[in-house]
Amino acid sequence: MPPRDANWVDGFRGIASFMVVCGHLCTAFVPWLHAPAHSDKEAPHLFQLPFFRLAVGGRSAVAIFFLITGYVNSIGPIARSRSGNTEAALSGLARSTLARSGRLVLPTMIATLITWFLANINAYHMTKHVDSTWIRQGWHRQEPTLYKMFTSLIRAEVGTWTTGWDEYDGTQWTLQLFLEGSMMVYLTMLATVLIKPRARKLVFAVLYVYCWVSGQGLAIGPLKSLNIITGMFLAELQNEYKDAATSMVPAPIPALMIIFGMFMSSYPQDAPERAAWSNHMCKFMHHFTPEGADVRRYWDSLGASTVLFGIFFSRNARKILTSPVFNFLGRVSFPVYLMHNTLIKSILTWMVYLPSAMNPPRNAKGEQMDLQRGSTMHIFIAVGIFYYILYRLASLWVQYIDPACGRVVNAFTKWAAGEPPTHNGHAIGNGHAEKPVLLQ
């Protein structure tokens, strides 16, 4: 795997991608954990309680991705703006707008191509018959003709960025929002690159309030816009205080912020009225959100933002997130996000349901019933193997596919900018080595 400098943002991104996978596994096999209790008269399971439920819930993790998108895409332009180098800031924005789009779209297209190929060799056949509703909904038929095969591929590739829906991988619905979020960053930076940092902070505050009260789609606004703006504000603080931020506030405060943020992020996905703590949170948030808003997204955003600011002010939290384990998780976070649903519908499904598929259950009329999953221990072993395969493939993706995508994107941006092409690391005709481009 190519080297990459360790940083706490990468580690935080790695945790978020791991949480997303956990959340989808929970939805597949134990969806009742998304509620705070089985009913308002039953005691909750351990993983239905605050904090513990973060181990099986991934909604707040999506908010983290948007926070990081706002942060990493604005930190460079803000630094150049603060130094007075507006020409470099504008040039960087122009280049980043093209490069960011390519670095997001090209790997996603490859991931869709892979899941399309698996569907059309009937690798998802078993998913149609399993007892997991979420996995069964991910089934896609094997197209009967080559024409339908390739038209469905084009429809999926285009739909990811137009309608937000990929019929071969429904978990890609957020990627259109990530692209929109990046464009939101670049537009905001373009509008504020010439103003003073104090004025830019005021702009961020006004945008945040506007997106909060307008709802911005009632669900999408709290998920995308609020977190993008918060990420940009944090980038402003990073440029202002740099490493001194970890000594700005007393030690207990960042820890308390992280704990409080984790509690807010524990707000349940389903049936908050079944527990007193989540019911109070629901009623409280309804007083401050637009009518019809999805209060879950507001709690997800507030919780993730509070945790992020706690880490920003904490030296110990940053140190933990720059450790080799979290650095690795961060490096492979995007391919993990792209591939996990494909592997759930194929390898994990095969492992969990193979014993039942070898002897399919039938009802009294002889009709085949849904395949039944194995024992709890069987599932735990299968999930462990699934995680190993997922992260091993993600590591190979970063080693081989990401560099190839990077070369294509860099070549296109150079062509679009009218710069000379490169050959073996040197620009043709000028004799100078081409500087490496760090992929965010």
From TrEMBL:
Keyword Transmembrane helix annotated: yes
Keywords: Membrane, Transmembrane, Transmembrane helix
InterPro entries reported in the protein's UniProt record: Acyl_transf_3_dom, Acyltransferase_3
Domain Acyltransferase positions: 7-354
GO molecular function, one term: acyltransferase activity, transferring groups other than amino-acyl groups
Pfam families assigned to the protein according to its UniProt record, in alphabetical order: Acyl_transf_3
Spans traversing the lipid bilayer: 12-32, 52-72, 104-124, 173-195, 202-224, 244-264, 334-354, 375-394
Name of the protein in its database record: Acyltransferase 3 domain-containing protein
